[in-house]
Structures are given as C-alpha cells and as structure tokens.
Write the structure tokens for this entry.
Amino acid sequence: MNTSDVVYLTLLELSILLTAAQAVRVLTQRYYLPSIFAELLVGMILSPYALGEFLNSVFHVDLFQINSYLILFANFSVILLIFASGLSHGFKNLRSSGLLGFLAATFGALIPVILVYFAFRIIYPLEVSALMGAASAATSLAATSSIIEDFKLYKENFSRIMISAAALDDVVSLIILSVILEIESIKVLSILNIAYNVSITILSWVIILFLSVVIIPRVLSRVRDELVNQVSLFILFLLVFLMLLLGFSPIIASFIAGVAVGESIKSSKISSFTSTLLSIFGPIFFIYVGMETPISVFINIDDVLLGLLMAFLASIGKIAGIFPFAFLYTKSVKDSFLASIGMLPRGEVGLVIATLGLTSAIFNIDEFSQVIIMALVTTIVGGVLFTYLVKKWVIEVRK
C-alpha cells in the first residue's frame, strides 16, 4: 500500500470515527454524559484491539489503525483545544485568580501525588509509586476545556479559577515529574540539582508567558484582518516548537499562545475561527486515546481494583486541594465544588506519563494498565458528574 492510499484510508477512518462519535454523543447527552465519554467509547470499540480488527479482516483493508497520520490529527486536536481555552480567557482573566489560582493548582497537584505515592509505596518500588503519583497530579486541560466549550461557561467564576488552576497545575506536575526522573536517573537525591531544575523550569515558563503577552498582541494588531487567522495559527505552532526545544510540554505552549492571542484586539475574530476548527477536529484526540487503550486492561481484576483505588485517591486529593482556595475565590460552596469536580479528569496527561513510564522501563504492563484505568475513570466520572452538576446548578438556573 503506497503513501497516498494510507492518507485516504486515514481520512475515511477519521470520517467514520467522527460520525460515530457524534451519533453516540446525541444518544448519551440525555443521560448527562459528556461528549468525551462518547468519543472515548467509540475509540475503544473501533480500535484495532477490538471491533476495528474484526472489520479490517472482513473488508481486507487496514481501515481502523493507529498510524502517524492519525497521531498527527490527535496532536493537532489537543493543541487546538487548549489554545481555545487560553484564547477565551486572555491574560487578564487568568491573572484574576492570582495567588488563589496558584495555590489551588499547587495543592491540587501535590495532595494526589502524596496520597497515591504512600498508598502504592506499600507494594511498589519508590520510582514506580512516585511516577504513579505524578500521573495522578495534573488535570486534563483538554477534557476540562471540552466540557466548558460545550456549555459556554467561560465567564463563570468557577470556570475561571478551574481553567487557570488546570493550566498552572500542568507546570506543577511537570516539576514533580522532572524531580522523579531526576531521582531515577542519578539514583542519588541532590537537593541542589533538584532546586536548580525546578527554578529553571518556573523561571523559563514565567519569562515565556510574559514575553508572549507583551509581543504577540502587538504583532497581531499590525496584521490585516484577512490574514489574522493564519498568522494566529503560525504563532501557535511556532511557540509550541520553541517550547518543545526548551523541553516544555506542548500543552503549556498551547495555553500560553492562547492567553497571549486573547489579549489582542482581534481576538474575537480568531476565536470564531478557532471554534469552527474545534467543531471538526476537537473530538479526535479523545477518540485516539480510546483507540490506544486495549480492552485487555480491564481483564485483570487486580489491575482494575488498583486502578480504581488510584482513581479514588487522585479524586479526593484533587478535591481537597482545590475546594478551599476555590471557595475563597468564588465565595460559593456550589461554585467551589463545581471547580473541584471539573478538575478531576486526568485524561491525556495521565496517559502521557503512563506511556513515559512504560517506554522508560519504570512501569511493567500491569502498572501501566493501572494508570490507564485511573486516567479513564477520573476523566469519565469527573466529566459525567461535572456535566450533571452544571446542568442542574447553572443551566437550569439560567432558564
């Protein structure tokens, strides 16, 4: 099969997957299930590990497969979701949560790490339990953004602190992850080395954020209206590329680009363009995550139970870390609880760390499966509960 055939098959595969996800989404909305549930479910069912393999054999063609083209679209999808989230807030709204947003992000990441680490340290070595803790730290900003986009919740108080904390806890989680990998690589705890790496990470992130907020809006203000959408995408991927060279996550780069573009006088035009792209490409990442998850992870009862335990500890730790600071910010128990529940999904962040653990030989397949289950359970349960509470406490009140 030549390259052009693979491209056409991938486009056909995406069309089928997106259509199926939309159909399932229509069916599940009445049960307060978020769109990401439909997308994950369709991905798992039509993956090459499940029904997709059977259909491939029936039609004698590798239609449902995970290839480099599908991964490209999935990466574009998650970058676009997070860019849209930053774009909707801008730096002013992100800054409005201030110290409380930072504290919510910090404690919302640290408490799950501590709970998961000490619980799993009983049965696993230090590096395994520590990496499991790191996987439980960061909120899936893509999952959170998807739900907020569905209900247009960007102006709600709980949404503001939730998004800013979710963005900031990616930084906190990366710091935690770098510390764990530092310990794993050198085998000797060096306080000076760890302090240096943490300081460089934080300083670099802050400098890039402020430079972006200062420079990017000024650049866009000089761009003609008919070119502003294309230039905004160029800025997005240029910043992602530069931050990848510096060792940062594309998740953080995408959010910084969105925040900076959101400060531009032309942000409303770019926002409309981004929403159009999201309606097409938004679901692809979650479908891809579902396709990457083999059904076999749900067969071993021990792995399932340990995965559920990890999900429980990650959830109560996140709520305990977020709720007090969200309450100080919103002055509302309901809004604070909504912010806490909205931060439960681990989604792609947990999956990325799980994959890193497997490829670096820190995790075996059982330990990898447990983190996969934790990420999926927190994403689905958190998404379902958040959607239900939003409809009950926010949407119905608006009516």
The longest helix spans residues 365-398.
